[in-house]
Design brief:
CATH superfamily of the largest domain: Rhodanese-like domain
Number of domains: 3
Strand content: 15-25%
Number of helices: 10
Number of strands: 15
CATH architecture of the largest domain: 3-Layer(aba) Sandwich
CATH class of the largest domain: Alpha Beta
Largest sheet: 5 strands, mixed
Low-confidence stretches: none
């Protein structure tokens, strides 16, 4: 919720929609974001748009209006939060083959995907339906930090490994399955893939964990939700919160998500504040002694070296042309 200390808005969104010339769209979108002083990560693909950005409330609202004014993205569901400052240091708008990296490029969620379950309905289902499978399709470091009560989790390092776990899911083939992830984008393809593989009763939590936290107070989500910006994690549950993760070093209960200070390791793990300072942000003694270990400032987030980052690089000519 917004207050006097939270002047910036953070949004998470995606939309599967055909973009015929993603290179041109990428350039135009990049310039628009610069105009609005937005920062974050946006992926443009022939299959759609996926992003998380931060900026002033006024400029983010303007961005959302402009995106939704395009008929292709009119139904985009923006998940909104507030923060005292930008949650990103720079802007990256990139053209990639998929808007979420997977090994399921052949699947088009616009043609077939699991039916949406809205947050309020999902809360009822997990409370009242005993024979339901709540399936987390995120990576290990994400669900180890937080997950829905009694959720089925998969031992995967990346979403692209999801199809390899099909044999683990065969036992649930006759049951109702509801998939979930951070913002919903992975579930579009995960649920579609399960349907393709003969699973018949497949649904997905619309808007993922973030929307569930906003609309259903995050009830029965245990732990914190990992996010892909400099916050690293956010609180979700306002009803019955619970810490489920343990400090990687001492194994005490902790939900302080950090990146290891050793850049060659950079593992995403929970480390309690005491161990964080004692280990100088490293996950092990070996990493603490690494010659390239980064300076720990108590957050466990390390901004990549910008190396002369210039958001207008490559666009000067286009900007001059637009002025003519």
């Amino acid at each position: 919720m917004k207050n006097a200390d939270n002047q910036y808005k953070v949004i998470l969104y995606y939309c599967y929609a055909e973009i015929k010339d993603p290179d041109q769209f990428r350039d135009e979108h990049h310039l628009m974001c610069l105009e609005l002083d937005l920062r974050g990560r946006i992926i443009v693909s022939q299959e759609g748009l996926n992003g998380t950005v931060s900026g002033s409330t006024e400029m983010v609202d303007e961005y959302m209006n402009r995106v939704k004014a395009d008929p292709r993205f009119a139904d985009t569901d923006f998940k909104e939060d507030f923060h005292p400052e930008h949650t990103f240091k720079k802007l990256n708008v990139r053209h990639k083959s998929e808007i979420v990296h997977s090994s399921l490029a052949h699947i088009n969620p616009r043609q077939k995907t699991g039916a949406y379950v809205e947050p309020a309905k999902f809360r009822e289902m997990i409370k009242n339906e005993e024979d339901i499978v709540i399936l987390d399709v995120r990576s290990n470091y994400e669900h180890e930090l937080g997950r829905f009560k009694n959720a089925v989790t998969l031992d995967i390092e990346n979403f692209r490994d999801f199809p390899e776990k099909l044999s683990d899911l065969e036992q649930y083939k006759g049951k109702k399955i509801v998939t979930y992830c951070t913002g919903g984008i992975k579930c579009e393809k995960a649920s579609a893939y399960l349907l393709e593989q003969g699973f018949e009763n497949v649904y997905q939590l619309h808007g993922g964990i973030i929307k569930y936290g906003i609309e259903a107070d995050g009830e029965d989500f245990e732990g914190k939700c990992y996010v892909f910006d400099n916050r690293l994690s956010v609180d979700v549950n306002k009803v019955n919160p619970k810490v489920v993760s343990k400090c990687f070093v001492c194994e005490s209960q902790s939900d302080r998500m950090v990146n290891c200070a050793n850049p060659e390791c950079n593992v995403h793990v929970a480390i309690c504040e005491k161990c964080g300072w004692e280990m100088e942000g490293a996950c092990s003694k070996e990493c603490m002694e690494h010659p390239e270990k980064r300076e720990y400032n108590g957050t466990g987030y390390y901004q990549k070296n910008t190396n002369g980052y210039d958001p207008y690089k490559g666009f000067q000519g286009k900007l001059e042309k637009n002025k003519l």
